[in-house]
Specification:
The protein is mainly α and 177 residues long. The protein has one domain. It is 79% helix and 0% strand. Helix 1 runs parallel beside helix 3, helix 1 packs antiparallel against helix 4 and helix 2 packs antiparallel against helix 3. The radius of gyration is 18 Å and the shape is globular. It starts with 5 loop residues before the first helix and ends in a 6-residue tail after the last helix.
């Protein structure tokens, strides 16, 4: 069994704290409405676009690493982490100034929408520690573990990014601007 270094233990503690704090803070802020604020209605298409860009850059990053372009892969992955953080800030800001938009479709499409939304939400929470663990492994010069974790992180993160766009497209006709 591998010995866990002190540095890795510290990373693991921070990963646990951040992975729990982000969903809790988002849930709390999601319920809080800034008094007398105007809805920031221009944000949903922007953060949906950020999700789309993230999905594309994730695929490009995998292609880059498979072609041995390590520096490009690193830059793309850091960009994806920054884009995900930017998405989160915009998402929370929008929901702190706007009422929740309910899906107005019916029939089978309604069930499809809610299935996609629920899986998107659950996986968006689970991808936080996965991204942080995967990133920490390469930071700690553990390429083998990094590759191992990336095999799980990549498809989940890609699913979250793509379904973020799909959820936006499906809900956008029901936004009140």
């Amino acid at each position: 069994m591998e010995e866990i270094t002190l540095k890795e233990k510290q990373f693991n503690r921070w990963i646990m704290v951040i992975s729990l704090a982000i969903p809790l803070v988002v849930a709390l802020l999601f319920r809080y409405k800034i008094p007398d604020s105007k809805p920031i209605s221009f944000l949903p298409p922007i953060y949906a676009t950020i999700n789309g860009i993230t999905a594309i850059l994730l695929v490009v990053a995998v292609i880059a690493i498979r072609n041995g372009r390590i520096k490009l892969h690193q830059r793309l992955m850091i960009t994806n982490i920054v884009l995900s953080a930017l998405f989160l800030v915009m998402y929370v800001a929008y929901h702190m100034t706007s009422e929740t938009t309910m899906y107005g479709g019916s029939g089978t499409l309604k069930y499809v929408y809610y299935f996609i939304l629920m899986t998107h939400i659950v996986l968006s929470i689970s991808v936080i520690p996965l991204v942080l663990i995967t990133y920490s492994k390469i930071y700690l010069d553990d390429e083998e573990s990094h590759r191992h974790w990336a095999r799980y992180t990549f498809p989940i993160w890609l699913y979250v990014a793509v379904t973020g766009v799909v959820v936006y497209i499906m809900i956008s006709p029901y936004y009140q601007y």
